Amino acid sequence: MAVLLVLGAGAAAHANRPVPFGDQVSAPGNAQASPVVAQSAAPVVPDFRVGPGLEAYDPSSGALLWSYRRDGATALHVTPFGQSAVVVWDDGMVTSVEIDNHQVRWHRSVPGLSDWLQGVGEPGADQRTEAQREQLELQRAAAAVQVASEPEPWVQVLTPGLTMGFRDRDGDLRFNARPQDGCTYDPLRAVDTDIAVLVPRSCTATTGAGHQLLPGSITGFRLDGHGYVLNAGPKVKITRLDAKRVQIDDGPLVGSRVFDTDQGASAIPCDSPEAPFAAVKPQDGCPVAAPAADH
Questions:
Q1: Which of 131, 141, 161, 163 is a Cys-bridge partner for 77, taking CB atoms 3.0 to 4.6 Å apart?
Q2: Domains of the chain by range and CATH?
């Protein structure tokens, strides 16, 4: 009898324990969401809406499939990613939700994310209207998460002062990095491929003579740890071309180049003396020279 009483008390305590992170998942639900344009890394079945919670709708019938909310937090952006929906919340939490069974896979709190989303401490922050503040939050939340699928699905969360990479299946922290002193990451210019996330870095630190101490650069992050750093100007622009390649535009003096994020190298033009030895060649290859005619 004593054993049964102990087991019964334990079961009751387990059933009535607080839900971690204030999660409320139901189908259909009450997330009171409004439509947004979600950034998608791969085709997904539901249509998503965010704010203040997350809702998933059947794209053909419009029927509500399920909803998800967190007490005291507002969902700002959702990134559909394979069978996951990665949500950025205004309190600096990032959540991965399984789309098929609407179960929360993991939560991760990223230091400094909430302050950056809201522009806390930035010049002119106190002059922004409520509409401007909300627009800033949505824009930054859309840039805060980048995703890649190789060697397995992973999620990178970005702030100017810190970036963290998580394995999507369990939220395991695989890496974290901070920029050098006097420099900041620029999440708004970051680009992902299937293999890597490329993050520009700009620097403001100067020498005693007023000269810039460090140039800008691009850091390439990968889940397998084989990242790279590329020299670049402070206003470099990165454009995704396909699953592996990006175009890097670095102004009129340096010009543009195609970079392979898998090989970690730029494509070498066919007319370059290095072309025969290049690890990465132009997408269409180089023409094969015709054999010399016999005389």
A1: 141
A2: 21-164 (2.40.10.480), 179-285 (no CATH)
